[in-house]
Amino acid sequence: MLFNLTDEQKMIRNMVREFSRKVIAATAAERDKTKAFPAENFRQMGELGLMGMMIPEEYGGESADTVSYVLALSEIAYSCASTSVVMSVQNSIVCESLNNFGTKEQKQQFLVPLASGEMIGAFGLTEPDAGSDPVSQATVAVKDNDHYIINGTKRFITSGKHAKVVLVTAKTDPEAGHKGISCFIVPKGTKGLIVGHEEDKMGLRASDTTDLIFEDCRVPASFMLGEPGDGFKIAMAGLDSGRIGIAAQSVGVAQAAFDAAVSYASKRKQFGVTITKHQAIRFQIADMATRIEAARQLMFSAASMKDRKEPYTKEASMAKLFASEMVNEVTARAIQMHGGYGFTKDYVVERLYRDARVFTIYEGTSEIQRIVISNNILKDKRKP
Ligand code: CAA
């Protein structure tokens, strides 16, 4: 590994690796079948400080750097991608947005229980007719004295069912484009916030993905995150961090598929020898390992730029683009190396292949990442 990790970063990686392979891995295959949400695992992850890693200690976090965070997230993804997506959304788009834009009171009330893992959070940006283009969202929030009344439907919301608090974007000035979008903190139990349809997904099955419906949902004006019109900026900044997290999940899942494939190939005999003696398999192993390592370096590079407080939007998109495409290729090759067995549920690579499929889609498709990267290189914004 080229990247120099500090002793503390190595210690965090080793601690999370041990926990993940002992505790998280034990029930991952079963939860893929039953779709059971791993609430007890999240409680333990909260105790280990994994639910708000980059949040200051005064607000219930660990004050860890982003490099430590991506190491931890990769280790969780190695054992269970469903668990890792909840950890990712919680740490980046939810906790970091509150930490960066919240008032002291909002942080005390919401960030402390989120960062310490006492409650799960969700982020509502996407809508039935607004995915890649969130500026065209239809959810509105209308001011009513010292409250806002929110109406609209959010779709594909990670942890929509289990979250106890939701950050939701809504138009407060529908004529003002992205400058008219604001962000609100809405606790579950608020009248008019309804959990709608739950998706039946091909992968990440133990993580719930639901509609959230807002029907005349009244929230105090003091629950607005940031200023009126900050909602799009909050979402984009949160997604920058979130995209490094998707790269980390990709690296973790790819490493798991690679390790499983090498282990299988080292035992499987065909034509009188273990198949690792065949050049066709050896070249697969070399290509997979090289691509995983390249993705890991892009992930570290974007994470360390964020830690140095340098602009990292382009690098986060590069890491997300490359790593998510990589894991789709690596999990497919891992199945190929298993032959017919890889197509069965008896081998972990089948689940990894399904789990990885969404990585090129959520938190901005590969196509959106290419737009972000080229816009940042050319400094000439082309609309999608
Ligand atoms: N950080 C801060 N501000 C940013 C920003 C960033 N990374 N990117 C853009 N902005 C600001 C710009 O500076 C600009 O502000 P000003 O006018 O004040 O200069 C404003 O936002 C608008 O920028 P653009 O003109 O570039 O915006 P656009 O409408 O062309 O959209 C886009 C750009 C990249 C296509 C963006 O819409 C995008 O990222 N789309 C994908 C959305 C997405 O990733 N959705 C995923 C849903 S969340 C999810 O999947 C979570 C889950 O549960 C797993």
Provide a descriptive summary of the structure in words:
The chain is of the alpha+beta class and about 375 residues long. It has a four-stranded mixed β-sheet with strand order 1-4-5-8, with helices on one face. A four-stranded antiparallel β-sheet has the order 2-3-7-6, with helices on one face. A two-stranded antiparallel ribbon has the order 9-10. It is globular. The two termini are about 35 Å apart. Bound molecules: acetoacetyl-coenzyme A. Acetoacetyl-coenzyme A binds next to strand 3, helix 6 and helix 10.
Using brief descriptors, characterize the structure shown.
alpha+beta; 384 residues; 10 strands; four-stranded mixed β-sheet; globular
Write a concise synopsis of the structure shown.
It is built from ten helices and ten strands.
- What is the helix fraction of residues, given as a range? 40-55%
Residue-averaged pLDDT: 97
- Sketch the major β-sheet: 4 strands, mixed
* Overall shape: globular
Task: Supply Rg.
Answer: 21 Å
Number of strands: 10
Give the SSE string: HHHHHEEEEEEEEHEEHHHH
What is the CA–CA distance across the termini? Answer: 37 Å
The number of helical runs is 10
Give the low-pLDDT segments: none
Spell out which ligands are present.
acetoacetyl-coenzyme A
- Roughly what fraction of the amino acids lie in strands? 15-25%
* Structural class estimated from helices and strands: alpha+beta
Q: Going across the major beta sheet, what is the strand order?
A: 1-4-5-8
